[in-house]
Amino acid sequence: MKKIRTLQDLIDALDRELGWRRKELINIKLLHDKARDHHAIMLRRAGIALAYAHWEGFVKNAGTHYVEFVARQNLRYRDLQPNFLALGMKTHVFQAVDTVRGELLVQVAEFLTDRLDEPARLSEKGAVQTKSNLSPARLRDIVAILGLDYRPFELQEKPVLERLLQQRHSIAHGLYLEVDANEFTTLHQQTIAMMDEFRTQIENAALTHSYRR
C-alpha cells in the first residue's frame, strides 16, 4: 500500500477507504428494499452487522491514515498539537504510569524539557484502537487523540452509536433479533453520515494544518 506523505495521498486513501464501504452498505439496503418480508428480516440483521463493521473499520483505518500523514510531515515534537505530542510520548508515559521507579519518571521529565526540538516520531500502529467495541466512550477517546471535534457524534450517542453497538452485539452473539424496518433505515443512513463526517473532519484537519501548534 502506498505510503501517505502528502495531502493528496491522504485524500486518496480516505476516498478508497470510504468508497467500497459506502457501496456495500448501499447495495445491501437496495437488496433489502426489494426483498420479500421474510428475506427483508434476514437482510436487516445482516445489514446491522455490516453497518457496524464498516463504521468501526472506517474509524480505525481512516484515523490510522491521518496519523501516518502527520508522522510524515517532518515536524518537531514542539510543533505538534498536544494530542499528537501525547501520541509521540505515549511509550514514555505508559512506562511511567503507576511506577515508583525514579528512572522512568525522570525520563518523562527529560522528554518534556529536553527533547521537544527533536524530530517527532509517531507510529500509526496501534494509535487508533477500537478494540472491537466502538462505544461512544471509545469513539470520544479516538476523536480526542486525533484532535477532531466530537460534538457532531455526541448528538448520535443514544439513537445511533449505542443502538448500533447493542444490536450488533446481539446479532454477533447468535441471538435472534428482529430489527425494525424504520430503525434499520435510520441506522443505515446515519452510519454513512457518520463516516462522511469523520472523513470530512480528517481532511479539513490535514488541509488547515490543525495538527500543528
Task: Provide a brief overview of the structure.
By secondary structure, this protein is mainly α. It contains nine helices and no strands.
Oligomer type: single chain
Distance between the termini: 30 Å
Number of helices: 9
> What is the chain-wise order of helices and strands?
HHHHHHHHH
Q: List the domain count as a whole number.
A: 2
How helix-rich are the residues, as a percent range?
A: 55-70%
Instruction: Count all strands and give the number.
Output: 0
Low-confidence parts lasting 5 or more residues at pLDDT below 50? none
Structural class label: mainly alpha
Largest sheet: none
What is the 3D form? elongated
C-alpha Rg (nearest Å): 20 Å
Mean pLDDT: 91
Hey, roughly how much beta strand do the residues contain? under 5%
Q: What can you tell me about this protein's structure?
A:
With 213 residues, this protein is mostly helical. It folds into two domains: 7-75 and 123-207; 77-119, no CATH class. The protein has nine helices and no strands. Helix 8 (157-172) packs across helix 9 (181-207). The longest helix has 35 residues, at 37-71. 31% of the residues are buried.
